[in-house]
Amino acid sequence: KAGVTQTPRYLIKTRGQQVTLSCSPISGHRSVSWYQQTPGQGLQFLFEYFSETQRNKGNFPGRFSGRQFSNSRSEMNVSTLELGDSALYLCASSLGSIPDTQYFGPGTRLTVL
Amino acid sequence: AQSVAQPEDQVNVAEGNPLTVKCTYSVSGNPYLFWYVQYPNRGLQFLLKYITGDNLVKGSYGFEAEFNKSQTSFHLKKPSALVSDSALYFCAVTRSGYSTLTFGKGTMLLVSP
Q: What is the pLDDT of residue B98?
């Protein structure tokens, strides 16, 4: 089975721009979670989607949003980028039971200049 | 609320020696505990999990972890370390009825030849 894929792998943006990251879960997985990883804050939970509905949300500003499509693929969007948004954004998928093992993608490295 | 502490930023061991990476947790209710490993420029790889049952859990690549309820710990162990085990290790916790993982800050394991 193919693993979790994330595109693009690397992104460079400037302050004020917006960005969209994409995640394709493992086939058959219905839950997708997003995490931000930085050296200072570690791994922080952004949000989780299950069957196209946001099931949980972390403590991030409204500039961070996401959605899930009927095929379970998910996108996250960050608007009005700030320098502090530079991070590795990780997507994880699971079957969707609560709780369940999450399997991670390789991440998207976002650099904001 | 739930939290994880990984008290050591770095653990150094010589190849062939046993290794232990420490993790303590705090959660309401029954804990579900996970260990993940991250290699440079990669996502997180699932190693093992504790849900219920036997306190000694065996996982991938010869790793195992011991769940200790009274000490609220879930230490990762391996009898004989390999240089290729050098990586960043994360402990994570969630609880019954809750899907969001909370991660520790991570412990860098360095195995010297």
A: 80
Q: What is the DSSP letter of B52?
A: S
Residue B36 has which token pair? 């993940």
Nearest 5°: CA angle at B30, between B32 and B92? 30
Task: Give A22's DSSP letter.
Answer: E
Mean pLDDT of B21-47: 94
Alpha helices in B5-113 (DSSP H): none
Q: Which residues of B touch A48 (CB under 8 A)?
A: 99-100
Q: Do B32 and A56 touch (CB under 8 A)?
A: no
Residues of chain A contacting B41 with CB distance shorter than 8 Å: 106, 109
Q: Express each pLDDT in B35-58 by its tens digit.
A: 999 998 888 999 999 998 889 999
- Does A30 reach chain B within 8 Å, measured CB to CB? no
- The answer to whether the Cα torsion of B62, B112, B89, A74 is positive or negative is negative
